[in-house]
Design a protein that fits this description.
Number of domains: 2
Helix content: 55-70%
CATH architecture of the largest domain: Orthogonal Bundle
Strand order of the largest sheet: 1-2
Strand content: under 5%
CATH class of the largest domain: Mainly Alpha
Distance between the termini: 51 Å
């Protein structure tokens, strides 16, 4: 079995991430556990003793109390989350905004297209650091980004930046440079959006976390999952049901996975951020806790708001209205909003994000909070323009395909398909290749039509 597969199946590989996660959560880590960590770190990753010690270590870390004076309150249950929302979010002013939603079919199609475009832009450079991205873009006259990234470039530049065509991910034949693709390639970001559609088609608006878990097991191969999702998948196979599937020996419980799964719940609740966030919570609670859940709720609520709002600040705030004001995520997103209001430049804002989080370390590179800050900055400074927004989301580094997809999705919903630039839409050829069972290569327009069928099944939107 390949080492990349074993990485998420062996507990011994998770100890460094767990330690950082516990520190961020404010866990009171004892000297004994620090000694245990040091001992395990010195053992070979494949040593059975390390695996045994690591499993016990994960169990103990998960049960630690918080340090005295920890400044954040971060529940994972829906009632607890709602109780700590800011006052304007608790009012849920758009409980029924059907009358405010215009051209919703065009907006939903735009969201699918924008998500695909942003993901395709960031996909071939996923895992690259900001400096490497900027270097390639500058030397190929594409900085700031004006089009998808190609591998059909001067050979010396390709060699300098490690641009290769072989080694595509998720079953894709080649790396997804624009010159290698014929449609939107498979990626986990779109697999989960499609999976959300499958869940809603089968179970309707009142689907449960158990329904989401069942859909994973039925429709999504285990090796199409990563990090928190793969741990949760393992837990589900071991009959550990939600919400315990999210926390049991899951060091990745606040990583970006739930945030990239949430868009669909905004698509089917146009104008209703509260209900969109609730749908995202049901999905996220299968694999994530605390800020991992909040990132999903923030994204879904933004997408619901983008169907009825024009101002990007209002859209970002609508997302913030559905998560605890007492959370780390809320604090960091509020800071990004303040930078923008104070006239801090986009470049300076990105520099500040990198000053807080180290994209060279996997924990920060793939964490919900660091990437949510990138998305917020891209949305605010992109000012509603698809090209500017997805370009900024990708140029900032961190998880490029995820952030490009989320930012593009929001802009697509806000602007609608009819207002998206042809040069970003045409290469998609209105098709997505999916790894979700039963979908294969499917027209994006068909996914939008099926989404609209669900929207119209809701009494509030039946006339749309």
């Amino acid at each position: 079995m390949k080492a990349s597969v074993l990485y998420y199946l062996q507990y011994g590989h998770h100890i460094d991430i767990e330690r950082r996660q516990a520190m961020d959560e404010g866990r009171a880590i004892s000297e004994q556990l620090e000694e245990r960590y040091a001992r395990m770190s010195g053992l070979d990753p494949n040593d059975p003793l390390r695996e045994q010690l690591a499993a016990d270590y994960l169990d103990q870390m998960g049960s630690l109390p918080l340090i005295e004076g920890y400044p954040y309150t971060e529940p994972s249950d829906l009632d607890g989350i709602r109780a700590l929302r800011p006052e304007y979010g608790q009012r849920a002013e758009r409980q029924n905004a059907a009358s405010e939603v215009a051209d919703i079919a065009d907006r939903v199609y735009g969201a699918w297209l924008g998500r695909s475009a942003g993901c395709l832009l960031g996909h071939p450079i996923e895992g690259w650091r900001r400096e490497r991205i900027a270097g390639l873009l500058r030397e190929t006259d594409n900085h700031p980004i004006r089009y998808y990234i190609s591998s059909d470039i001067d050979l010396s530049i390709a060699a300098k930046y490690g641009v290769v065509n072989e080694g595509g991910s998720y079953g894709n034949r080649c790396v997804s440079w624009i010159n290698n693709v014929e449609h939107m390639v498979e990626d986990d970001d779109l697999n989960y959006t499609i999976l959300g559609l499958a869940v809603a088609e089968k179970h309707g608006y009142e689907f449960s976390p158990d329904d989401v878990a069942e859909a994973w097991l039925n429709l999504l191969p285990a090796l199409r999952t990563c990090t928190a999702e793969r741990i949760a998948y393992r837990n589900l196979l071991n009959l550990i049901a939600p919400p315990a599937s999210a926390s049991y020996r899951n060091a990745y419980r606040e990583w970006i996975g739930a945030q990239i799964r949430a868009d669909f719940y905004g698509y089917i609740h146009p104008g209703n951020p509260e209900k969109a966030a609730e749908g995202a919570w049901r999905d996220a609670s299968v694999s994530h806790v605390k800020n991992g859940i909040y990132g999903a709720m923030w994204v879904a609520a933004m997408l619901a708001a983008a169907a009825v709002a024009e101002k990007m600040e209002e859209i970002v705030m609508a997302g913030l209205g559905q998560i605890p004001a007492t959370s780390r995520l809320a604090g960091e997103l509020t800071e990004v909003l303040q930078w923008h209001a104070d006239g801090v430049s986009y470049e300076a804002a990105v520099e500040r994000i990198h000053g807080k989080y180290d994209e060279a370390h996997p924990y920060h590179w793939c964490h919900t909070i660091s990437n949510a800050m990138v998305v917020a900055a891209a949305l605010l400074y992109g000012e509603g323009d698809l090209e500017s927004t997805i370009g900024k989301a990708v140029m900032a580094g961190f998880d490029t395909d995820c952030n490009g997809a989320t930012a593009g999705s929001v802009i697509g919903m806000r602007n609608g398909a009819s207002r998206l630039p042809e040069k970003w839409v045409e290469p998609l050829q209105d098709k997505i290749r999916s790894g979700v069972d039963g979908f294969g290569i499917v027209p994006i327009s068909k996914l939008a039509e099926r989404t609209m069928a669900i929207v119209r099944s809701n009494e509030a939107y039946r006339s749309l």
